[in-house]
């Protein structure tokens, strides 16, 4: 299966003096960490649909299995591998970890 090639926009803003603000991406997540997909940045729409077909979509929680030499994530029962330039375009949010007391005593409604 061929993966489309594309150019990433990196560098200065066209309308400002600074660089793009740092946002957490899949590339920044540590192995063993669970993260929630927030969105995609600088990926063509057809490639976003390609990722969504494999279950990688906003709101989905994934576990990072490895970061070197490529980023490997587990999406339900499937493992997906991404080159660094792709992993840097997948925006994530870390899943908050429960404390041991929350695991044994869940909040009552």
Query: What distance separates the N and C termini?
Result: 48 Å
Proportion of beta-strand residues: 25-35%
Give the low-confidence spans.
none
Number of helices: 3
* Spatial extent as radius of gyration: 16 Å
CATH fold annotation of the domain at 26-97: SH3 type barrels
Name of the CATH superfamily of the domain at 26-97 = Ferrous iron transport protein A (FeoA)
Query: Which strand order spans the largest sheet, edge to edge or round the barrel?
Result: 4-3-2-1-5
Q: N-to-C SSE series?
A: EHEEEHEH
CATH architecture of the domain at 26-97: Roll
* Strand runs, count: 5
Largest sheet: 5 strands, antiparallel
Mean pLDDT: 82
Characteristic key phrases:
alpha+beta, SH3 type barrels, 109 residues
Describe this structure in words.
The protein is α+β, with helices and mostly antiparallel strands and 109 residues long. The chain has 3 helices and 5 strands; from the N terminus they run E-H-E-E-E-H-E-H. It has a domain of 72 residues: SH3 type barrels. The chain is 17% helix and 26% strand. Strands 4-3-2-1-5 form a 5-stranded antiparallel β-sheet. Pfam families: FeoA.
């Amino acid at each position: 299966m061929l993966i489309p090639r594309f150019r990433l926009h990196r560098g200065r803003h066209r309308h400002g003096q600074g660089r793009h603000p740092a946002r957490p991406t899949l590339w920044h997540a540590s192995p063993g960490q669970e993260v929630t997909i927030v969105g995609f940045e600088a990926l063509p729409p057809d490639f976003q649909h390609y990722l969504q077909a494999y279950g990688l979509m906003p709101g989905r929680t994934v576990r990072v299995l490895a970061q070197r030499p490529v980023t490997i994530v587990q999406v339900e029962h499937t493992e997906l591998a991404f080159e660094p330039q792709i992993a840097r375009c997948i925006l994530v949010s870390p899943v908050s970890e429960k404390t041991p007391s929350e695991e044994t005593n869940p909040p009552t409604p």
